[in-house]
Amino acid sequence: MNDTIVAISTPRGFGGIGVVRLSGSSALSIAQKIFSKKIKHPRKAYFGYIFDVNTKERIDTAIAIYFKAPHSYTGEDVVELQMHGGIKNLDVTVKLLIGLGARLAERGEFTRRAFLNGKMDLIESEAVIELIQAKTEKAMKVASKRLFGGVSSEILKIKKQILSVLSEIEGSIDFPMDVDQVNPDEIKDKLENISKEIEKLLSTYRAGKSIEQGVKVVIAGKTNVGKSTLLNALLKFDRAIVSETPGTTRDTVEEEIDFFGIPVRFIDTAGIRETTDKVEALGKKRSLKAIEQADIVLFMFDASEKLKDDDIELAKLTEGKERIIVLNKTDLPVKLKKEDLNKLFVDENIVEISALKKKGVEMLEKVIYNKILPDYVETPLITTETEKNSLHNALLHLKEAEKIVGKGMDELVSEELKDALDSLGVITGENVSTDILNTIFSRFCIGK
Ligand SMILES: Nc1nc2c(ncn2[C@@H]2O[C@H](COP(=O)(O)OP(=O)(O)O)[C@@H](O)[C@H]2O)c(=O)[nH]1
Ligand SMILES: [Mg+2]
User: Fold this and answer.
1) N or C, fewer C-beta in 10 Å, the chain?
2) How many structural domains is the chain composed of?
3) pTM for the full predicted model
């Protein structure tokens, strides 16, 4: 474990600076071998040059900084060599360091070591990658909150509350004579309150996931209702070919944009109609698949045409999906009214637009936004499935405990509470399997 790892920590390409980072017990001695100045003290910047140990050839000027364990990113000895941001000079430097005994770091290994050495918990470690990969400002802010302990402190608070109940119960088990017997109603109240806090945190998952992982919005409907026109209107540029010839879009056309802070992938589908054309049939298959994978479906109708049976057939395909009904071409003489659709789609959002004249598109955007982030407030959000599942498990154990409190089964209550604590420990990482760690850190790049 305590071997010394090395990697280029800046993006591969051409830039002002490029950083080679080492971490491990031999970081300083290895780095020193190729750096011209003596690195005497930690946290001081030394200006010198990198040279090839074998040929003594100079490679690049560099600033070396040594961070002595445990006061470093990983908690181990770390050396950062700030060089010019080229590709070859950095590659050669890494090769030299490997030749001197360092090992190329695996994906996320620096952060993994930081986690294992207690420099950050698992939520904060994941926030590092979320911050790096944030595609929108909102996503970045969510990641920052998590990085600076926003979610961790919520979990800690909940844990403390559970621990306090646990110690009351354990006290009465261990010293039944000395301690005032626990009042079951009081305990129940406390457990109920803790459950509420967990539920509150759980309810942030939808927003957290949407903002961090993005949302797929699929535009579906019959051919020629204006799907491609709407895609272009939503993207604000002409991405898809629009034509009066039905069946023009034969493949799914998609594009991700920053949709008011949410990374949204809009997907335009081939119109779905019975066809004998082979390519169009393939397109139809893809459309159906896209609908299946959609988070939200915009189901479109043409207001200038009467409703047909196949419209209704198609609408069935998207039943059970998060759906917004869009009535397009309202600039033309109307043959299909909103009221007609109201009867078919009771209690669903129906938005009237003219994609061509860009009328009602802003309204539609608002409806989409509210579907993704209803009542959004900037609180710390949970974003990963593991966090959601673990909170859910903790909640189940608490509810179970609540049920049996006061029934003379204090040992069982205490077991449930300990299980709840274990579930929470998965989120912060005290109690996490290597598999989960592998999955998490494989999302990182090398050098992070
Ligand atoms: N009048 C009118 N025509 C539209 C509107 N939206 C699309 N169209 C036209 O309808 C035809 C089909 O549009 P297109 O976006 O290719 O439909 P798709 O097959 O569903 O992708 C084109 O001639 C568009 O210009 C609209 O809101 N009003
Ligand atoms: Mg089209």
Assistant:
1) N
2) 3
3) 0.87
